[in-house]
Write a structure and sequence with these properties.
By secondary structure, this protein is α+β, with helices and mostly antiparallel strands. The chain has one domain. 46% of the residues lie in helices and 12% in strands. A two-stranded antiparallel ribbon has the order 1-2. Strands 3-4 form a two-stranded antiparallel ribbon. A hairpin with a 5-residue loop joins strand 3 and strand 4.
């Protein structure tokens, strides 16, 4: 009579574990992407609010109604830096009383009241 060792896992057990891990990943990936998109939108909204505040300050100090974004963003200006979060581009000029709108590379439109 041969003594068979019962150590290790069978192929069926390993396949079940792989399927369970796959199902968990399939549920987690969409949730992660939604959180990522929401986070990017909030970061862009924050950038737009900083631009709006900087533009307000510029308008008060200079008595004008429009300003170029380059006059607001720079190491020694109102907004130190404005790194893109989701491939968005910001408008070149800001006008008083006009909403600031940005479209990301993914087509998401983010607007802030100004």
């Amino acid at each position: 009579m041969q003594n068979k060792s019962k150590k290790g896992f069978t192929l069926v057990e390993i396949m079940i574990v792989v399927v369970i891990i796959g199902l968990l990943a399939a549920m987690a990936v969409p949730a992660f992407q939604k959180v990522r998109t929401t986070s990017q939108e909030k970061a862009i909204t924050n950038n737009l609010r900083q631009i709006a505040s900087a533009a307000d300050q510029y308008f008060l100090e200079n008595g004008v109604e429009t300003v170029a974004l380059t006059a607001l963003v720079g190491p020694d200006l109102y907004v130190k830096s404005l790194p893109p979060v989701a491939g968005e581009t910001y408008p070149a000029t800001i006008a008083a009383g006009t909403d600031i709108t940005v479209t990301t590379a993914g087509g998401v439109v983010v607007t802030t009241d100004f």
